[in-house]
Specification:
- Two copies of one chain form a homodimer.
- The first copy, chain A, has twelve helices and 18 strands.
- By secondary structure, chain A is α+β, with helices and mostly antiparallel strands.
- Chain A has three domains: about 80 residues, Rossmann fold (3-Layer(aba) Sandwich); about 60 residues, ATP-grasp fold, A domain (Dna Ligase, domain 1, 2-Layer Sandwich), CATH 3.30.1490.20; about 180 residues, D-amino Acid Aminotransferase, Chain A, domain 1, CATH 3.30.470.
- In chain A, the strands form three sheets. In chain A, strands 10, 11, 12, 13, 14, 15, 16, 17 and 18 form a nine-stranded antiparallel sheet that branches.
- In chain A, helix 1 packs across helix 10 and helix 2 packs parallel to helix 3.
- Chain A is globular and about 55 Å long.
- The relative contact order of chain A is 0.12.
């Protein structure tokens, strides 16, 4: 089978590494000459909306998927008229606009923080009357890793927050005093089979994910599975999806979802029976889904901006290093390492060592 | 780091898949245009003894390794004078000649079945006086998967057995009425650190490995570790090595060793904390070795000659499929699947299903 991927970054790279044992060949479309998955398949080098390259991608691929959600709607629709595309252009359209996404959450019964659409400073000022302080202004489109976001604590912050949006449509949402951030990763295949991973507990800093830990048997698992099922079924979704949630007063509220494999699921490579990458492929290739059961205890640490010494990471027993073959650059995710251990105590001890190592090279 | 590999078959393919997360790039030298690792690196296409290609391989690689032991001595020495080569040409030289290998075993205190070198039918006839019946005649060089071997049960079998050697130097060895066949896989790095995997119990049919099962806590583990340590240290070995053993009356005797990753260690991909492929790379790149602890229970089944339906294998919970991207052909290893399970009972139940599937497509 031949799978086309829009994007050839680290997510595409890990999809490909999971796909070779299943006999899958890959075609990547990516504008970067040195895109980090490009050694693992055919690299179509050019813009994501280049009609000739898209036609070539569709022609070469049995199914096309994406490693990011900000795919122009035209591109997704073009591909879908020429080959199989998973997730569907509709799922992408919902995910790439925060207003559409939040309305969609509500339509299927998933609670969110309070929010309001804003198209002007006047809208924002007025919305704050009902949202309450503090709140976050977010551009409706093209946000990731905390980009396109501004926190507002007092009325004085409003003009600068609106200016930060540079005139694009936005939403303002209540800042939720959450107890913790979790995400649930689930896969659904065309037969409607759904597989859920255990919740990940996520730690962000500066809007970028730093640490994810697998929570086996968490009391919120059931509620998260209920919410993600509503979403997967309403969207008639095929592939892996990650739903990010806040836990507030013993309840989950949705932050956003990613229609793709997700950084908070990287621990599944070593820490689950089947990784999110393999299950994404199994889903889009209409194969039976693999077991999502945890294998021991697992946590993942991102390396941001700087690379650790390989030998130093590998000297940590139970550490599994994943380099992305990307040049270090301020704020850039360049690698991660997963710890897998037989006990929580073992995991926690090693996690301190690994996190200290990541902090030392972090220049974000 | 850039690793050159002589050969681009399934072993090279699995080494490469383990190497990408460590940031390794690969260069393969293989005469087959469609060699199954060739999509995972630069493929130098030509004969193993082509001087220009070998020079190019050495030039492109920080270290060169092999996926098979029958590398001409000249080639290994040429490479070793131009770049780092692991395992050493000396380890190859010992492994590729059964007589040298058996004498080497004895020199380091590892017992073997009784054997004698033979260069003629007269030698064979005479040797049988001390070896005893039945026995196996084996060519000294180029044997694998049971090729170049002939069983002799009575004096009448001797002429045909000798003819089967086609005039090449051979050895005759006592046929050992073994209780079981096991192998131990170990890795050693240049610092002298050694890591041992749990024993594999191996089932052969027609000279080809069919099933390997991880034996955690086996009573023979200590003896096997002692033997393989003698070998690794005497050879000043760097990389992964597999030592195949027979168990007879509660003792282990050596059959042969492979100076490379080995089919009986494929279960380590899912069934051990660090796979044999990753540990081979860690060793030859002078990195700390990874934990070899088993992760649950694991067994591997080879697919010989014919391919199973992907969906049928993946429908078996806990089954992990590894296709080699090789066209099915009689007697050819084209894929394997590993079962990983939390209990021995769970493993045994699934192993029956998987083995039945492998038997159905087997045309060896």
């Amino acid at each position: 089978m031949k799978v086309g991927v829009l994007g050839a970054g680290q997510l595409a790279r890990m999809i490909a590494l999971a796909g070779y044992p299943l006999g899958v060949d890959f075609i990547f479309l990516d504008p970067a000459q040195d895109a980090c998955a490009n050694k693992l398949g055919t690299h179509l080098h050019g813009a994501y909306d280049d009609p000739a390259l898209l036609a070539r991608l569709a022609e070469l691929s049995d199914v096309v998927t994406y490693e990011f959600e900000n795919v122009p709607a035209d591109v997704a629709h073009f591909l879908a008229t020429h080959t199989e595309v998973h997730p569907s252009p509709n799922a992408l359209a919902v995910a790439q606009d925060r207003l559409v996404e939040k309305n969609y959450f509500h339509s299927v019964g998933i609670p969110t923080p309070e929010f309001a659409p804003i198209d002007s400073l006047a809208d924002l000022t007025q919305a704050m009357e009902s949202i309450g302080w503090p709140a976050i202004v977010k551009s409706r489109r093209m946000g990731y890793d905390g980009k396109g976001q501004a926190l507002v604590r007092t009325p004085d912050d409003l003009p600068r927050a609106w200016e930060a949006m540079a005139g694009v449509p936005a939403v303002v949402e209540a800042f939720v005093p959450f107890d913790r951030e979790v995400s649930i990763i689930a896969a659904r295949n065309p037969q409607g089979e759904i597989a859920f991973y255990p919740l990940s507990e996520n730690l962000h800093k500066g809007g970028i994910l730093r640490v994810s830990e697998c929570l086996d048997g968490d009391p919120m698992q059931q509620q998260a599975e209920d919410y993600v099922t509503r979403l997967l079924e309403a969207l008639d979704y095929v592939g892996v999806l990650a739903l990010e949630l806040f836990q507030v007063n013993g309840q989950l509220v949705a932050n956003e979802f990613a229609p793709r494999v997700h950084n908070s699921g990287h621990w599944t490579i070593e820490g689950a029976e089947t990784s999110q990458f393999e299950n994404h492929l199994r889903a889009i290739l209409s194969l039976p889904l693999g077991s999502t059961k945890p294998v021991g205890h697992a946590a993942m640490v991102n390396f941001i901006g700087g690379l650790p010494e390989t030998a130093e990471v590998l000297a940590i027993e139970h550490a599994h290093l994943h380099l992305y073959d990307k040049a270090p650059r301020k704020g850039r995710k360049v690698a991660h390492a997963t710890l897998r251990a037989e006990s929580q105590e073992q995991l926690s001890a090693k996690l301190k060592t690994l996190s200290a190592l990541a902090d030392r090279v972090d220049d974000s």
